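S.,

Sequence below, as promised.
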Amino acid sequence: MAGELTPAADTRERSATVDGNKFHVLVTAGYFAPGWRAGGPVRSISEVLALASDDIETSMLTRDRDLGCSDPYPGLSGRWSRVGRTNVFYLGVRRLGHWRSLWRSLRAGRFDLLYVNSVWSTFSILPIAAARLGLLRVGRVLVAPRGEFGPAALRVHRLRKRIFLAAWRWMLQDRRVLWHATTPVEANDIRRVLPRAQIGVVAVSRGPEPEQAPAELPATHHARLVFIGRISPMKNLDLVLAALAFVPVPVRLDIYGPVEDEAYWQRCREHLAELPESVAVSYQGELPPEQVRATFARYDAFVLPTRGENYGNAIAESLSACCPVLCSDRTPWTAVLRDGGGLVLTELTATALGALITQVATATPQQRHTARVEAGEAYRRWRDSRAPVSVLDQAWQVIRDPACRVPPQGRTP
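The prediction came back faster than expected:
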């Protein structure tokens, strides 16, 4: 996290005017701490804010409640609060008084950068429109699509997204708009949708600190598999359940995560009736973020045949806890997995995934422990190769020196 959450000095109204010698950034995101049900973006944004240099002053706008929750965070709704070094306003979107208080705070200040997380969110559309109309004084805009321009993501609600882009393209390709891609692949995804997009930053999270060694697990004849993530079509849990029917030896799968799509969850449950008696599947409910790594450490492998990830925080957490990952080749982690972090699924079919699961399930307890050691070592090598630099500092450098911008092919400078 970016830091402990504490009340701001004036919780009802707080001016955005700050030290004139600093680089001022307004960050917007639909969900943020203390929420966690929105998954990886919450953790990624927390890291961006935590890594920002002392010369960057950050303010943030977010909802006053977590994903799927009807109740606001206690004591935060309609107020400015301090999270680490960031002033955060928790907005109740249906509360007119909140909008008035927020507007009084923001109109007095000027921001060098507006950093929005998502293309489709109201918390991105409204601030960008306000900046373009001059209602919000902003120098530049940095957009992080968070994987939303990946081919699989664009196929979800395709018609609505095409209509939106047709109407909004002129705004997104404005000369003041820069883009934050997490990998060169995502940079190319952005340019495929918006050919004139200016990629300002290609940067990915450095991930959590790795465990020194995997914990010793009780020896069992069956493999212990886990799925941790939002239960939605993008994460492809139904493929995991279908694949288990092709595993000829005993295996146990525990599922953790919020049910984001009830109809999809019903399809997943229908697969359970088709599984052999040697396969045990259990839904364990939601998992608070502080328990994720300790949970991964109790399993032989994390199975995630995702349809696409621009980063994949859960993958980083699993590897950092020495839990190998069985994952599709549609993430930035393929090279790390092939370096010892796990197994790569190149074909999104139940038989192909079943074959990978069978490799884990037929391994001896000692072989499964060795795989956990190798997963931790692969992650450690990857993490040691990355410098802890904030996206915001990189954006500031690009704004000062446009020559630092990413080349058209999406390669890093």
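Residues 6-18 have pLDDT under 50 and may be disordered.

Coffee later?
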